[in-house]
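Limitations
The structure tokens in this dataset are predictions for the assembled complex, not deposited experimental models. Users should treat interface geometry with appropriate caution, especially where small molecules or nucleic acid strands are included. An illustrative entry is reproduced here so readers can see what is and is not provided.
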Amino acid sequence: MSLIIKGKVWKFGDNVDTDELFAGRYIMLGNEADKEAYKQAVIRGAFESLSTIGAADENMPTGFIDAISRVLSGYENHNPDSLEALSGDVIVAGKNFGIGSSRQQAAEALRFLGISACLAETMHRIFYRNFWNVGGIAIDQKGISSLLAMGDMAEIDLNQYTVRNITEERQIKLDIRLPEEFILMYEKGGLIPYHKDR
Amino acid sequence: MGMTLAEKILAWKSGREKVRPGEIITVDVDVAMSHDALGAHTIAKFKDLTGQDGKVWSREKIVLILDHYVPSNSIETAKKIQNIESFVEKQGLINYYGIGRGGICHKVLIEKGHVVPGDFVVGTDSHTTTHGVMGAFATGVGVDDMACVWKTGKTWERGPETLFVEISGKLKQGIYSKDLMLKIIGTLGVDGAIQRCVQFSGEAVYSLSIDSRSVLTNMAIETGATNGIIDPDTKVSDYLQGRTKKKVDLVQGDTDARYERFVRINASHINEPLVACPWSPANVKRVSELEGTRINQAFVGSCTNGKLEDLQVVASIVKGHEVAPNCRMIIIPASQEVYREAAQKGLLDIFVESHAFVSGPTCGPCMETHMGILGPGDAMISSANRNFRGRAGDPTANIFLASPATVAASAIAGEITDPRKYL
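Predicted assembly:
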């Protein structure tokens, strides 16, 4: 797996919380033992949450809920093209992204939808670790949201520890250093696949 | 340069001399708690990880507690509880608290002596930060994390900077640790301590009971913190006497420990009860600014404020009064122990007499799980910890957070009210 990823930017504001990403009422839905059914239930829960609670939040980018709706209909109508509506895309947020609950579905839903990375000025710790654990890249660093605007192409390079705005040819150096085991976990696709092979 | 208690715990549990802030390390876990909301999900992940016959790393250190959906509200929930029960039996887990045997996880872990100073505690619940009240490093994790802890007894952590909150002075009559914590959250903001450890100290903190102190560590998460911690004193060891079989050592941070930032608050300067308004625990106002705001649901309970001392204050306020006709009041003791003590002291009788609805221990209407769910346009004042949009029901319903006393006074008046009128 490459340590360099590229994706289109969806720009979020501050304090996007886990209730709007995945409301409490959907936590018990889905049979986790059936992975495909669970995946669809989680995407459906995220769609319902974002289109009711999240839609009232001015921090949600225009078009994001429509894109989720396309992915969902991709599953429900077996349309492989619309499954890719968010594939590889990158979320760039302001302060305190993922604030709230330990419910992993908030992070998992974004991964199931195809989001490859979440970048934010600051990120809530449990969301941060959940997103890495389910195979994504989570980076919290000051200045990252002014680097990238809605629709820009972002490049994240975990070899060089840089985030680049390809559209505007600007980049920043990241402060974080990831231990080797952590990189291995990412390459395996997350915490469970990593521990499975050990 | 010395270390804070949180830094010492991370160093001990990762076998290092020191853990630098920002450094990612592997840590040994002392207590791994999960509950009904994410327990079955964790079990599915654990089976995925280890196969159907995989064994957990410890039968003693895992604690499973039913609290969010108690008793079962649906066939779906009932199946998940069956799943948890059969896992507990198959694995021979020793610390399982089913319905009627425990209560809200964060109250039960403390009451039953599972957490002692110096422990590293993880739970599949963001309010696991509560256990820092015992001098532990305690923090929330997701289900993949927990499945791996169950297999290996280890997890990963990112070393936090520590923010030192020193609280001097003394709380005035009618002002409680909940008001103090709302003041702190209002001061720091919801990301004021993001990915940081918040250490609470000062005479005002140490004069509080363990239950009152735990409001601070419980809501430390609402400042974005990784964990909250209080260096333990003899109140902690006294509390644990007869409750734990584990060795209790009052470990402390060094006097020359380094802190990223100091925040000083004088408890004597909080002149009025405080209320957090929609949609953020940091949107804090003085009760006088909100007086007259209509509410139609008042909730006393949750891992934050469903303890005996909370119920005692509520009883002293509602005694001889009735809940306003256009309002419903829901009172939920946080644990079986609290429930029984409240019954013995005659508190439940006072509540029922006042037309409050009283239930056995559960998380209740703190979040939109199974009871007391808000409809469009409803307004709830709650002693719980979070008031995000849609947290407890319809996204148009307002949620206000306050001390149990303010909740009780507001229930009687049917509008947000200063509890000192009734004290």
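Some entries come with short summary sentences. For this one: Residues 75-91 of chain B form the longest helix (17 residues).
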